[in-house]
Design goal:
Low-confidence stretches: none
Shape: elongated
CATH topology of one domain: Tumour Suppressor Smad4
Mean pLDDT: 81
Number of helices: 2
Largest sheet: 7 strands, mixed
Number of strands: 12
Radius of gyration: 20 Å
Structural class: alpha+beta
CATH architecture of one domain: Sandwich
Strand order of the largest sheet: 1-3-2-12-11-8-9
Order of helices and strands: HEHEEEEEEEEEEE
Length: about 190
């Protein structure tokens, strides 16, 4: 009798775990589809204005050996950064490692995303302002001791502390506000 109840409990737990996993996968798929639909809509709007459609720039151009090993055979973070008030202007990236956002009028190998074209200097963006760090589970933002600070969803970021970014978050670097749109992220590893 006790063995039967223990077996029933194990079966119920296994069914609940499978259902939870299925719900999580459905949620991830729905989020991915929403993000792709959003980018497709932006692409159509941009294409209609004569600008080229979405292309994801792979950054950094030369990922470290650690990053190459980490992302080998895995889906990387694909994001779009949309400047506030300029929904027709967006930047799409495939993050293959740490990416530095800043503003520099000269070409700089230390900068992966240059905000000079968005009047970065006038908006208070430092030369090396913020670092985006993709991991298998989260995408983090770290302020790089910028002069005018970094904020996530209006809350100031402390230097040296990593902040997890989510789809739709507002990343403010100086007075330049960027909406972060997560198009695709790594699949969670399943343990069987």
């Amino acid at each position: 009798m006790d063995n039967t109840r223990a077996l029933e409990r194990e079966e119920i737990a296994a069914i609940q775990k499978a259902a939870s996993s299925a719900r999580r996968n459905d949620t991830l798929n729905a989020q991915r589809m929403n993000a792709l639909a959003f980018l497709n809509e932006l692409s159509r709007a941009v294409r209609g204005s004569g600008v080229t459609p979405v292309e994801f720039s792979a950054i950094p151009r030369d990922p470290s050996l650690r990053d190459r090993r980490l992302w080998q055979g895995r889906q990387t973070w694909r994001i779009a950064l949309i400047p506030s008030g300029k929904s027709d202007l967006f930047m799409a990236y495939d993050l293959r490692g740490d990416a530095v956002i800043g503003c520099n009028s000269r070409s700089s190998d230390e900068l992966d995303i240059n905000m000079v074209g968005l009047d970065g200097f006038e908006q208070g963006v430092s030369r090396r302002h913020v670092l985006l760090r993709p991991t298998l589970s989260k995408l983090y933002a770290l302020d790089l001791q910028s002069t005018n600070g970094t904020a996530i969803n209006g809350l100031p970021a402390t230097v040296g502390r990593a902040y997890a970014l989510a789809d739709g978050d507002l990343l403010s670097i100086g007075r330049l506000h960027l909406q972060v749109k997560v198009v695709c992220k790594p699949e969670p590893e399943t343990i069987i």
